[in-house]
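hey so u asked for the seq, here:
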Amino acid sequence: GGFAFGAPPDSASSAGSLFSVPPAFGAASAGTGAGDAEGDNADAAGGDPEAECQAQFKPVVELEEVAVTTGEEHEECLFEMKSKLYRFEPESNEWKERGIGPVKFLKHKETGQVRLLHRNDKTLKIRANHIVMPGTNLMEHAGTDNSWVWSTWDFADEEQRYEMFAIKFGNEERAQQFHSKHAEAMNINASLGVGEETEETEEEAAKKEEKAKDDAAADELASKLESTEVKEEEKKEEEEEETS
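ran it, C-alpha cells below
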C-alpha cells in the first residue's frame, strides 16, 4: 500500500494484538495429568511401541543435493541491517512497499566495487540492486529521522531503470549507521573511478562526433580546392592554345 513518512505508529493497537496472542511456552494444557497417567500405565505394562516397531522405510524418490547460489559468494558484506524499502511509482504518484528485509553493502573481492542489495526476507526476492554511485544524495524525508530517500539507476528487475527509493529503519541511530556506510561505499567506488567511465565515454563520443564533422568539412574543402585547381588548369590550357 501507500507509504506515509512521519506518521506515528499505532502503538496501542499493535500492543493490544501482541498481548492477545497466547504464549508459546509455559502454559499447562488441560488433561495433561490424565495423559501422564495413561503413559505410566503403558510403561508399567512393559509396552514400548517405538522399541517394538523395527520397520524401515526407504524414500520412493531420492533427491540429489543442489548447491544454491545467491550471487554474493564473491563479495564481502560491509554492512547489513533490517529495513523496510519503498519505491516511488510515478504512474500512481505514490510510494509502494517493496518489502521488509536486510539491506546490505557488498564489496566485490576482485573489483573492489561496492553495491547496495535489498532482499525481501520472506520471498528472498531482490528489491534493490545497484552500484553505489559517487555523488548520490541521501535526503531526509520531511518529518522523519529514521528514513532516507535517493534516486539511482537500479537493476533489481533485471533491467536498468532509474528509480527513486525510500528506506526506513527502526530508529534514528540505525538510519545514521546506514548513512555512514553509504558515504563510505561512495568513497570506495570513487577511488576506483566508478562513474567516470560513463562520463569519459560520453566525452569520447562527443569528440569522435566533432572529429567526424571536421573530417567531413576537410574532405569537402579538399574537394572544392581540387575542383578549382582543375578548372584553373583547363583555363590555362585554353589560353595557351589561343596564344599559339
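The longest strand covers residues 75-89. Residues 75-191 form a domain with the PH-domain like fold (CATH 2.30.29.30).
lmk if thats what u needed
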